[in-house]
């Protein structure tokens, strides 16, 4: 098992390198010159040369990449063009804020998705099943920024129950949650949770009803287990498939949502990315994308290892 | 309906005690919005401690469903009629909770395909331990000890190591042995075996079959075997019941039925099967296909395929009558009524 984990970990290295290459290339692929963004239009050629040397843009690309990679590995993601602060010091709080939001959204999305999916899987073909499927399809199809705006109109503007934007006391990094923080997070977390809830409900439903059709479930009943114990077996059989989907959703949520965070003015990675795009702040863009991609890779690694622990057959592949 | 009873003269001493399994006029219908099929129509038999009954028949003849009715292991669309009593307990009228206490302990079952019948994500040991603890409420270590004994009982080599193996890590034969160990884990008095050797290689088949027979004799379980394989039947059974379209059409001691079949279907079945000393002779298949259970006619279900059918065969379903001592057949040839003998063949009538 240790061997498997190690091997799986080694597989992630080329992926990580690929990710870093893409991030690095972003700067050079993006239309427009990063230098021109920070210099006045009428800058002299000499000044341009100076700035190029300062940022290392005068060296050949592979060398630039290695320099950049060296810096990244030692924790230096560069300096924001706009704020002149270290990219890392901008990204870390944003990642923290996104994590808080993602954790709440994951909690809601997974609980609702797994709950509804299981109910539907156990009652496949019934009205209940159709209702869950309808909910899931709606959840996946509704544009979530639109849903966010509707929720704001409903709960903040019309009813006045919940604040429309910001993090409230959560913004100061205050934990545990205060009532104020809770009030601020409800709407964005709910909005973010709708898509994963829908996707997970559908996959749980499909997996559970498929597992329940397998022969071994009959054996379980034949040996005298009650439905409660049979459920444990069904759950463990369904878990690997569902986990893979959940891992993807988790990674997606950790990445933050540009649209939802912008609608709710939530200062997370999505919000940061949005600002960086509009101001052409490439180092921030690069750094944020890199950090998020690493999250994605690590989450997938964790899911694979978990899957292997739950399903002994995975080892053989 | 005494002639419907299966019990022959072979086990004289057991005959005095009450039967362990008593099935009376069992019927099973599958009812849903778009269909209503009678799969089993009035099956009755008795089985005593230590007896082996073999249900023989083609696929779709209702043998599997008949057997599963003994532990009510049927989909929700199934509607059961008649009565099933095992060890004096009324199985069909039992609440679900009580049903789960007798499943696996009083009655247990071996399935056809051990690859899919065992849970792939739990070890063999876990699956046996779970069953033992569920019925006997003993500690985990006691249950594990029992699981080990069971694997040794079914002659799995290096049993201690196999206890922690997952089903996919075992060969087909070992898997089926593990399945048998699981079925025997709570000392059942009635063992149901649903084509337990069909999915195995021919060489493994006979090993598993011999093991099953040995265990059955050793533990004195009443056993019902479902198979379409006449060889299996003659290897393990005391009694045989041949099923066709959801009914018993011939019953009796295994030697009598296989050597001197009376019902034209059983006769055809024997002619279409390979057995000893037959080299050079041509096998005769039974013409036609089994009837569609959704649209059965009023007469004998086998009549459309029967070479000996005469006009009276199409008017009413014949009763199961004594065709020879201890042997019954559902054919009007053997009935008291003389209509069959009196009627001409179809060719003569036309």
UniProtKB/TrEMBL annotation, chain A:
Segments traversing the membrane: 9-30, 99-122, 134-161, 181-204, 253-278, 284-306
Domain ABC transmembrane type-1 per the UniProt entry, residue ranges: 95-307
PROSITE patterns the UniProt entry points to: ABC_TM1
Intracellular or extracellular location(s): Cell membrane
Top-rank taxon, per record: Bacteria
KW Transmembrane helix (keyword) present: yes
Membrane topology, from the record: Multi-pass membrane protein
Keywords assigned by UniProt, alphabetized: Cell membrane, Membrane, Transmembrane, Transmembrane helix, Transport
Gene Ontology MF term list: dipeptide transmembrane transporter activity
Major localisation: membrane
InterPro entries xrefs: BPD_transp_1_N, MetI-like, MetI-like_sf
Assigned GO CC terms: plasma membrane
Annotated family: Belongs to the binding-protein-dependent transport system permease family.
Protein's UniProt name: ABC transporter permease subunit
Organism listed in the record: Microvirga makkahensis
TrEMBL record, chain B:
Coiled-coil zones: none
Subcellular location as annotated: Cell inner membrane
Gene3D superfamilies in UniProt: P-loop containing nucleotide triphosphate hydrolases
NCBIfam families: oligo_HPY
GO molecular function terms listed in the Swiss-Prot or TrEMBL record: ATP binding; ATP hydrolysis activity
Keyword match Membrane: yes
Superkingdom of the source species: Bacteria
BP-aspect Gene Ontology terms: peptide transport; transmembrane transport
Keywords: ATP-binding, Cell membrane, Membrane, Nucleotide-binding, Transport
Membrane topology: Peripheral membrane protein
Family: Belongs to the ABC transporter superfamily.
ABC transporter domain sequence ranges: 23-270
Main location: membrane
Entry-linked InterPro entries: AAA+_ATPase (IPR003593), ABC_Ni/Peptide_Import (IPR050388), ABC_transporter-like_ATP-bd (IPR003439), Oligopep_ABC_C (IPR013563), P-loop_NTPase (IPR027417)
Species, as recorded: Microvirga makkahensis
Name the UniProt record assigns to this protein: ATP-binding cassette domain-containing protein
A cellular component term, taken from the record's GO annotations: plasma membrane
Keyword Membrane included in the entry's annotation: yes
């Amino acid at each position: 098992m240790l061997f498997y984990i190690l091997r799986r970990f080694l597989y992630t290295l080329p992926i990580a390198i690929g990710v870093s290459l893409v991030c690095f290339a972003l700067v050079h692929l993006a239309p427009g010159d990063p230098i021109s963004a920070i210099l006045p239009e009428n800058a002299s050629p000499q000044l341009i040369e100076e700035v190029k040397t300062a940022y290392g843009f005068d060296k050949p690309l592979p060398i630039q990449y290695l320099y950049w990679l060296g810096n990244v590995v030692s924790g230096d993601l560069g300096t924001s063009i706009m704020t002149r602060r270290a990219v890392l010091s901008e990204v870390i709080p944003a990642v923290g804020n996104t994590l808080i939001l993602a954790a709440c959204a994951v909690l809601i999305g997974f609980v609702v998705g797994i709950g509804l999916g299981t109910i539907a899987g156990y009652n496949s073909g019934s009205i209940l099943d159709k209702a869950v499927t309808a909910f899931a399809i709606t959840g996946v199809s509704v544009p979530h920024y639109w849903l966010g705006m509707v929720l704001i109109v409903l709960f903040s503007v019309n009813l006045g129950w919940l604040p429309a934007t910001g993090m409230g006391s959560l913004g100061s990094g205050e934990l545990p949650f205060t009532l104020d923080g809770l009030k601020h997070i409800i709407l964005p977390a709910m909005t973010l949770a709708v898509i994963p809830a829908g996707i997970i409900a559908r996959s749980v439903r499909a997996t559970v009803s498929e597992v329940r059709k397998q022969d071994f479930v009959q054996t379980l009943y034949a040996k005298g287990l009650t439905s409660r114990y049979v459920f444990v077996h069904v759950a463990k059989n369904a878990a690997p498939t569902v986990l893979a989907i959940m891992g993807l959703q988790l990674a997606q949520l950790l990445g933050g949502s540009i649209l939802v965070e912008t609608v709710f003015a939530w200062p997370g990675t999505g919000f940061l990315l949005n600002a960086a795009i509009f101001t052409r702040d490439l180092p921030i863009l690069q750094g944020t994308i890199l950090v998020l991609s690493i999250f994605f890779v690590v989450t997938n690694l964790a899911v694979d290892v978990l899957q292997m622990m739950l399903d002994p057959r995975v080892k053989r592949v | 309906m005494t002639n419907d009873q299966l019990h022959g003269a072979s086990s004289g001493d057991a005959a005095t005690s009450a039967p362990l399994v008593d099935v009376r006029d069992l019927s099973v219908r599958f009812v849903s919005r778009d269909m209503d099929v009678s799969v089993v129509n009035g099956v009755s038999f008795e089985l005593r401690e230590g007896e082996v009954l073999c249900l023989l028949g083609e696929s779709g003849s209702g043998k599997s469903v008949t057997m599963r009715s003994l532990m009510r292991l049927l989909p929700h669309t199934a509607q059961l009629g008649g009565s099933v009593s095992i060890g004096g307990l009324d199985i069909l009228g039992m609440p679900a909770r009580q049903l789960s206490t007798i499943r696996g302990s009083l009655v247990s079952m071996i399935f056809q395909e051990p690859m899919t019948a065992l849970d792939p994500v739990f070890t063999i040991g876990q699956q046996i331990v779970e069953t033992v603890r569920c019925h006997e409420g003993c500690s985990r270590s006691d249950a594990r000890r029992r699981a080990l004994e069971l694997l040794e009982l079914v002659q799995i080599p290096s049993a201690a190591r196999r206890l922690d193996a997952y089903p996919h890590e075992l060969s087909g034969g070992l898997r089926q042995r593990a399945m048998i160990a699981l079925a025997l884990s709570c000392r059942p008095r009635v063992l149901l075996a649903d084509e337990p050797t069909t999915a195995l290689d021919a060489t493994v088949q006979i090993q598993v079959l011999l093991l099953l027979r040995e265990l059955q004799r050793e533990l004195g379980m009443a056993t019902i075997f479902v198979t379409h394989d006449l060889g299996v039947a003659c290897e393990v059974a005391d009694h045989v019941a041949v099923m066709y379209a959801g009914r018993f059409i011939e019953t009796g001691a295994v030697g009598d039925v296989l050597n001197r079949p009376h019902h034209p279907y059983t006769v055809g079945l024997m002619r279409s099967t390979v057995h000893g000393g037959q080299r050079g002779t041509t096998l005769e298949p039974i013409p036609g296909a089994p009837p569609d259970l959704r649209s059965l006619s009023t007469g004998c279900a086998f009549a459309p395929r029967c070479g000996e059918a005469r006009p009276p065969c199409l008017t009413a379903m014949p009763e199961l009558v004594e065709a020879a001592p201890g042997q019954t057949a559902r054919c009007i040839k053997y009935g008291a009524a003389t209509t069959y003998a009196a009627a001409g063949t179809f060719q003569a009538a036309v």
